[in-house]
Specification:
Low-confidence stretches: none
CATH class: Alpha Beta
Number of strands: 10
Radius of gyration: 19 Å
Strand order of the largest sheet: 1-2-3-4-7-8-9-10
CATH topology: TIM Barrel
Shape: globular
Mean pLDDT: 96
Strand content: 15-25%
Length: about 325
């Protein structure tokens, strides 16, 4: 594996901020030195207290015009229920053009919270993985620029092509959680996405025939929440209010359908519980220690979620620059 520098990203958390604020944060994050920016793609926030869910693709289009350097990415879009994969391919190609090659299409199998909106129910995990695999096949075929007719188990495309494609093919990153999803999806993607710092995911990915090697052309992109604030008590309270759902784990988070469900599932989570899993307060070294787990596991790209809309400006103005310096100094 070749040596690569760890890159650090900023999350445009659509569940906790409105669209104009997100564009403003994106500009500030580029200015302060983040390498890339990722956007969640939700129809609903996790909790009512978060209070937002603007359309990620409109936000990203605006961000592409308001920024110049940072790479952009969906983290992640589900191309199987709310969106037909042919429509996702069109959106991604347009983003590739608007961003002048700075866009990566991050895809995953989705959550009930967002996908049940269109009234088609919520399939079992195995079916969702089958749908994702088929959707990626459709998107890849359309990215080739040819006329596509496709008949699969879950999707059909009738004599369609993308009329506006960037010169450089849009990268596809796929969210994986275990060996089965890695084996199925690694050959279809440029990059890996995961939400836990597990080195065995990268090892499994690199062992799959036909997969791009992490660290040698392919990236492993992780994400971690932090809650910086000059006052630790304020940070813990904010993290508990906004992010207590996070500790449920993705097996639970993928299946709950409503904010009420997440509120009920997290009703016994205490502020101390949240503070154990999310670094809170002004101590940048504590944040670095937590974030560094991804680098130690072999991840090439690590994006941070600064929890809460309140305090976001202050984080970007006061803490983000020094934090990035410390993270780069500590990176493997």
């Amino acid at each position: 594996m070749s040596s690569v520098s760890t890159r650090f990203g900023y999350t445009l958390m659509t569940e906790q901020s409105g669209p104009r604020e997100l564009v403003r944060y994106a500009v500030a994050a580029e200015r302060v030195g983040f390498d890339f920016e990722v956007s969640s793609d939700h129809y609903s926030p996790w909790l009512t207290e978060q209070g937002h869910a603007p359309y990620a693709w409109s936000v990203l289009g605006a961000v592409a015009q308001a920024t110049e350097r940072v790479e952009l990415m969906t983290y992640v879009t589900c191309p199987t229920m709310r969106y037909h994969p042919a429509v996702v391919a069109q959106k991604a190609a347009t983003m590739g053009l608007l961003s002048e090659g700075r866009f990566t299409l991050g895809l995953g199998s989705g959550e009930n919270l967002n996908e049940h909106t269109v009234g088609h129910g919520w399939p079992a995990l195995e079916t969702r993985q089958e749908m994702l695999e088929e959707a990626v096949e459709v998107i890849r075929a359309l990215f080739d620029g040819d006329l596509v007719t496709y008949r699969g188990e879950h999707f059909a495309v009738d004599s369609s092509r993308l009329w506006d494609l960037p010169d450089e093919r849009v990268r596809i990153a796929l969210a994986v959680s275990g060996d089965r999803s890695v084996e199925r999806l690694a050959p279809l993607a440029n990059d890996l996405i995961a939400v836990e710092p597990k080195s065995d995911l990268i090892e499994s990915w690199n062992a799959v025939e036909g997969a791009h090697t992490i660290g040698d052309g392919a990236r492993a992109i992780g994400q971690i929440p932090i809650c910086w604030d000059p006052d630790e008590k304020t940070a813990v309270e904010r993290a508990h209010e906004q992010f207590r759902w996070f500790g449920g784990g993705w097996n639970v988070n993928a299946d709950l359908p409503t904010t009420a469900g997440f509120s009920a599932a997290s009703q016994f989570v205490t502020p101390d519980d949240v503070a154990e899993s999310i670094p809170c307060g002004p101590d940048l070294d504590k944040i670095v220690s937590t974030v560094s787990a991804y680098g130690e596991a072999g991840f090439t790209d690590i994006c941070m979620v600064q929890v809460g809309d309140e305090g976001q400006d202050r984080f970007l103005e006061e803490a983000a620059g020094p934090l990035l310096e410390k993270l780069r100094a500590a990176a493997p």
